[in-house]
Every structure is written in C-alpha cells, then in structure tokens.
C-alpha cells in the first residue's frame, strides 16, 4: 500500500462500495476497510427505489444487479398506503426487488475493475487529521494515511464517534424484529406476491421458498431472535397452520431517529447510516445511502484531483443533509401510522383518503422514491435546475444514460458547437428545447441559451479550465 492513499472508505456496505466505485471510475486511489471478516450475506434491505435504479443504470451497473432480482414492485407505500410511481418521467416507475446482499456482491466484485482492495477484518480504533492528511489507526496500529476518510460504517460508526460529529435525535421508542424464514407447513393464505405492509406484521416472498417476516419483537435490542419467538408471531398473524421450518437470519431494530449535525469535519466525511438512522419504513434506507455516495463521489474525486472549485465539497452536506432530514420526518410519521391504537387508526383512515388525491399522492411518492429531489443551486429558476435530467433519446439514437458511463459532466444541446472543458464535460446533441449542463451525478446545474451564464456555471461547478475552445451558438 502507498504511504499516502487518496481516500480511505470505512465500511463495505452498499454506501461505501458504491462510493469506492465512483472514486475508482475517476482514477482515485482508494482503499476500503471493514470490520467484518467476510460479507454477511444477510438480505437486509430488499429493494431499489426508482432514483437508485436510475443512478446505477447511468453507470451501466443496474443490468448486472438485476440478474439477482426476485420481484418488480409497481408502486411504493407510505405506512402501507399505496403510492403511484407511474406518474413520473423515469425509465423505472417501480421498485426493483433485489436484496442488499446482492447489491453489495456486485459492487464489491466490480471494484476489481479499478484495482481497489477491500480489506476485511480490520477494526478502526483511532483517527486523527492534519491540514494535509488523515491518519487511521487500524487494529491498534497507525496503519493507513489518506488525504480523505469517509465513514460509511453504519449506525454505530466509529468514524463518526472518533471524529466528534454531533448525532442529535432520539433513541428508539418501539422495538421490532425481522426474520428471513422458510415454512415446513404453509397455509394457502400466504401469498407469493409482494403486498403492502399492514400494522400486524407482514410477509414478503424473497426466493427459493424464503420469506421476509416483519413483526413486533419482544426482546431487548441486539439480542438474538429465537425461532420460538418467530413462530409465536407467525401463529398470531397466520394461525397454527403456518409452521416455521428454518430461520435463515433474524435481527431486531427500533425507530431511533438521528442525523449527524454536519457531514464533513476537515478531511473526514460521513455517508449512509453513519450520517443518519431512522425506522426502515417505505424502503428508503439503503437507497438514501446509495444516493449519498453518488452525490459525494464526483465531488471528492474532483477535490483530490485538484480541479474542484472552492466550496464544491461542502455542497455535499448542503444538498444531502436536507434530503435525509425529510426521510427522518416521513419515517417518524409512518411509524405513528402503524401503531394499533383506535385514534391513530382514525388518523390513518384520513391519510388514506388524502392520498387518494393524485397531487397529494404524487408529493409523497416523489419523496419516498427520490424522484422529486431538487437541490438548491445558483443560476435562475429553470424548471429542471437542481433536478436530475430525465433520460432522453439523442440525435444518434442513443440514450442520455448511455453517455454517463465515464462519470463526467454532460453538455446537452441541439444548437451549440463542440465544446471542450479539460475532459470534464462531454458535449451531446439532443432534441431539447434548451441547453443543459448536467453534473456527473445526473443533476442539471445550468439551463439556458447564454454563453456567459454557461461559462459562470462551468466555473462554479467544474473550476477554471486550463484549455478551452470557443463556443458558438448556431441554433435559433
């Protein structure tokens, strides 16, 4: 290992692995460490939301991940109340049922493309930083020096604690349990289709006869979930005819809700569950972390490479902190709606009626799916500014997403000559009403038809160019 690497990623879950892939794509020398000796193989999260599907597709990775798919879920839900994803301009108006373990498997294997190692069984025990680097103490030894460290090491993040990030919020008030199980005796009433959750626990079919069962747990946090407890809950929900054969994996969790007060201290940053924890309601957790990584990756790579404009890395906190805060708020609300209290069920009935209104449904569907994210950006009030650019067919018949594989920004227009910006921005021709500048994470950071405002946006997001050819407008 070099004396000084570019980035140390702590945590080999989906967030850390996607970030490492983004850094590898940009040629950044990266090392991933994880305290577990091997991948757990536990299913954990079960689906990719539409926005996560879009970002993985834009790098050409989704197709391989979908080989593990066990269901396509046509809608989302808010506390078990159906949300319609079909109203959005996206190639993926649905959830893709794929287990977290399979997402991790692909992302870790893909790191070999960039010769990025994942060092397992390595415990981070200390962290200190200077103006030039961060020194990580691993297994009691000052083992790794890096220009930057990213903590993607989960809810109990060592990086967060060792660096001194604040983590305000509240502890869990309720405890739940989850188990992946098989049946030795299964009644006919248990479906093989994905269904919306109910307040009394619910089953989701995975594959090979395995079902995910979520129920109200009675044990203390972080204690084992015995098969007897699972059987008792299954009997209560589905009757004595349902007999558990094997519990493949089980865990307890609660509705703790906390968020780091900032996502960066000097050369140390947080992402995923290290930055925010919440009730896993609506299938948002893994997806929130993946989108953190996608937002951070190109900005951190630009900073390491030396071309990032001042303040670029700080936009990671400014953009992603509000998104996670909204998720914490909606998961707290969903948690309330599932409490089996008569007054709360009356509230639930009212919310169900409200979500029958298309506008209300769309608002929550956009938040849960990630499709309505709009970052605050300078440069006017164009409708798409700060939003992710929808996929479009280009003049040569290709799709916009096909040109995102290299992780560079795109200049999309139908009337501007070829434009060069130090290999940071690729020009594309498409049938669009106005020109767009699209960041490497797919979000529109400029829209218009004036060369001077375009140049200002390029400098704001991509720094000062060393060499740049002139721009000539040739459209009307």
CATH superfamily of the largest domain: FAD/NAD(P)-binding domain
Q: Care to count the β-strands?
A: 24
DSSP summary: helix tally: 11
Strand content: 15-25%
Instruction: Provide the structure class.
Output: alpha+beta
Q: Tell me, what is the CATH class of the largest domain?
A: Alpha Beta
Q: Rg, please? A: 23 Å
**Share of helix, binned:** 25-40%
Distance between the termini: 55 Å
Biggest beta sheet summary: 8 strands, mixed
The low-confidence parts are 468-476
CATH fold-level assignment of the largest domain: FAD/NAD(P)-binding domain
- Overall CATH architecture of the largest domain: 3-Layer(bba) Sandwich
What's the domain count? Answer: 3
Q: What is the overall pLDDT average?
A: 91
Tell the overall outline.
Answer: globular
Concise structural overview:
With 476 residues, the chain is of the alpha+beta class. It contains 11 helices and 24 strands.
What do these coordinates show?
The chain has 476 residues and is an alpha+beta fold. The chain is built from eleven helices and 24 strands. It has helices spanning 14-25, 50-58, 62-65, 100-110, 158-163, 227-238, 285-305, 315-337, 342-354, 358-369, 451-462; strands spanning 5-10, 30-34, 47-48, 71-73, 75-78, 81-84, 95-97, 118-120, 124-129, 134-138, 141-151, 169-170, 175-185, 202-205, 211-215, 243-254, 257-259, 264-265, 268-270, 276-277, 409-413, 425-429, 435-438, 444-448. A hairpin with a 4-residue loop joins strand 9 and strand 10 (134-138). Residues 468-476 have low confidence and may be disordered.
């Amino acid at each position: 290992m070099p004396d000084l690497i570019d980035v140390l990623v702590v945590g080999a879950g989906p967030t850390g692995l996607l970030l490492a892939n983004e850094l590898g794509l940009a040629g950044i020398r990266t090392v991933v460490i994880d305290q577990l000796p091997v991948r757990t193989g536990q299913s954990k999260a079960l689906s990719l939301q539409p926005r996560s599907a879009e970002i993985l597709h834009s790098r050409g990775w989704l197709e391989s991940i979908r080989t593990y798919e066990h269901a396509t879920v046509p809608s989302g839900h808010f506390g078990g109340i159906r949300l319609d994803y079909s109203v959005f301009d996206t190639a993926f108006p649905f959830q893709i049922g794929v287990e977290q373990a399979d997402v991790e498997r692909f992302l870790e294997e893909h790191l070999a493309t960039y010769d990025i190692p994942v060092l397992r069984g390595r415990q981070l025990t200390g962290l200190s930083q200077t103006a030039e680097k961060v020194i990580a103490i691993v297994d009691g030894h000052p083992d790794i020096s890096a220009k930057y460290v990213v903590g993607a090491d989960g809810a109990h993040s060592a990086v967060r604690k060792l660096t001194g990030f604040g983590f305000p919020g509240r502890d869990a008030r309720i405890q739940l349990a989850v188990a992946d199980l098989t049946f030795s005796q299964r009644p006919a009433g248990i479906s093989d289709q994905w269904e919306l959750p109910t307040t009394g626990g619910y089953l989701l079919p995975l594959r090979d006869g395995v079902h995910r069962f979520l129920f109200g747990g009675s044990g203390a946090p972080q204690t084992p979930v015995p098969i007897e407890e699972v059987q008792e809950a299954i009997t209560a929900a589905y009757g004595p005819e349902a007999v558990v054969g094997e519990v493949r994996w089980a865990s307890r969790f609660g509705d703790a809700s906390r968020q780091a007060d900032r996502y960066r201290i000097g050369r140390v940053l947080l992402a995923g569950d290290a930055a925010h924890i919440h009730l896993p309601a609506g299938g948002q957790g893994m997806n929130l972390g993946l989108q953190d990584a996608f937002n951070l990756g190109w900005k951190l790579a630009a900073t390491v490479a030396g071309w990032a404009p001042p303040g670029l890395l700080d936009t990671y906190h400014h953009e992603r902190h509000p998104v996670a805060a909204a998720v914490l708020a909606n998961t707290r609300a969903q948690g309330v709606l599932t409490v089996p209290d008569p007054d709360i069920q009356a509230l639930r009935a009212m919310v169900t009626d409200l979500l029958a209104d298309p506008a209300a449904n769309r608002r929550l569907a956009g938040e849960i799916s990630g499709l309505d994210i709009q970052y605050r950006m300078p440069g006017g009030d164009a409708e798409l500014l700060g939003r992710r650019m929808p996929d479009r067919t280009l003049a040569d018949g290709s799709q916009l997403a096909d040109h995102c594989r290299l992780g560079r920004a795109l200049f999309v227009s139908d009337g501007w000559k070829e434009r060069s910006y130090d290999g940071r921005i690729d020009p594309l021709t498409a049938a669009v009403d106005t020109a767009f500048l699209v960041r490497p994470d797919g979000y529109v950071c400029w829209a218009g038809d004036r060369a001077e405002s375009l140049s200002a946006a390029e400098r704001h997001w991509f720094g000062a160019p060393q060499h740049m050819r002139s721009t000539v407008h040739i459209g009307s």
